[in-house]
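Ticket #4471: structure output looks truncated?

Reporter: J.K.
Steps to reproduce: submitted the chain below (67 residues) through the standard prediction queue, then opened the result file.
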Amino acid sequence: MNQVDATDARLQTHEEICALRYEAIQKSFESGSKRMSRIEYILYAIIAVTLLGPGFAAEMLKKMLGV
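Returned output as attached by the reporter:
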């Protein structure tokens, strides 16, 4: 095996490993995005309770849930 073949083999292996890593990073971003959305909704609820009072927030929640 000459130097060019060895370099090509190493480069191909490197590209395959990087593709797997990139896929794992993408999955991590997707799951993180879902968590961030949930955190946003929780923060909105906390802001509403803080600014408008717990009674108003409870009434809004009842209306949203149809209770």
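Triage note (M.O.): checked the attachment and the full token line is present. The helical segments are 3-52, 54-65.
Status: closed, working as intended.
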